Amino acid sequence: MPNAETGSRPAHSRRGMKLWLGFLLVIAAGLLLAWWGTQSVRGRVVQVDTVQAGTGPTVQPTDGVVIEYEGRLENGTVFDSSAGRGPAMLLASQTIPGFAQALSRMSKGGRYKVWIPSRLAYGATPPQGGPVPPNANLEFDVRVLEVVPNAAALMQGAGAAGGQQPQQ
């Protein structure tokens, strides 16, 4: 509303507008920083999104797991899958570092979406002749069918065929 003496808006109205403008700039800066932070963290850490929660304790490094999975490159190309071959049986500690980290957040019966940065996957030197290119980030869909506690010790104790330790 114009001031009758000066023909302009009152000073308190301009201050209010500047205050609102400053407030909006702070919110915009906060949103930008939050988005940037999410992007920079994603490049450094394993992300595990729970599609369906499992039950029981989470997988430990010495545990064995029976899983169904599909591994993809970021462009959607499937590079490995248990489909058609049956579930995979493996020791949590004998996987790429990022997959071992992801397994440590999973439980029996759960379904998960996993994102692994290159440095925790195969990095600059993936298996020669394999489908994963150097410095590729990996994505997995994983379903945990079974967790075998302390499977590493069970396998080590089994030794040679028939449970006999090999002769030295």
Automatic annotation (TrEMBL):
One of its GO terms (molecular function) is peptidyl-prolyl cis-trans isomerase activity. The keyword Transmembrane helix applies. PROSITE patterns: FKBP_PPIASE. Its EC number is 5.2.1.8. It is an enzyme of class 5 (isomerase). SUPFAM superfamilies: FKBP-like. It holds the Pfam family FKBP_C. Residues 62-148 form the PPIase FKBP-type domain. Keywords: Isomerase, Membrane, Rotamase, Transmembrane, Transmembrane helix. It comes from the Bacteria. The chain crosses the membrane at residues 19-37. It catalyses: [protein]-peptidylproline (omega=180) = [protein]-peptidylproline (omega=0). The keyword ATP-binding does not apply. Belongs to the FKBP-type PPIase family. This is Peptidyl-prolyl cis-trans isomerase. It comes from Sphingomonas lutea.
